[in-house]
Amino acid sequence: MDDTPVPADDPKPQGKGRPTPKRRDAEGSRRQPVSAPKDRKEAYRQMRAKQAAQRDRARQGMLAGDERYLPARDKGPARKLARDWVDARRLPSQYFLPFSLLILLATWVPWPIEIRAAVLNIVIAVGWPIMMIGVLLTSVYVAWRIKRLVAEKLPNESTRGVGFYAAMRALQIRKLRFPPPQVLPGGKPVPAKK
Question: What's the rounded Cα separation, in Å, for the pair 3 and 10?
């Protein structure tokens, strides 16, 4: 033990300035009352409520585009860049599904025989091939452009699969895309919902 006297004007304080609490007092102050369920039904009800709250929080996070809540296929800066690039443009391939529905409805309408033959001829000989060529060319262009853009802007990110991801997003109707678009056509951010 060191018996050297400590000067009165020593700037270093000695001790903590209060007594050490007894163990039972320290543990007692940390304890919280446990609200255990009364029976098994109540336990299941509490568990379902907790899971529903977690699912709702995850859903809100996904709709907001929060990376923590997105599925693995949508995570990462390369995928975000691809989403924003596709969402900022109006591409011909996004009209594939509405155009397909229009063609399908045109073939179901009970036209008179001579008009029906002309409609089917136009649909089969002109409409479908033009639509399919447009979708194919747009998909190839989008995939090529996104891979190039990711390689330029994010050199440390892998471009594997990002072109296909962007091409598939470009095929979807804008309102049905998931995660929802964060930018409007033209590149402006989507205004926050109130």
Answer: 16
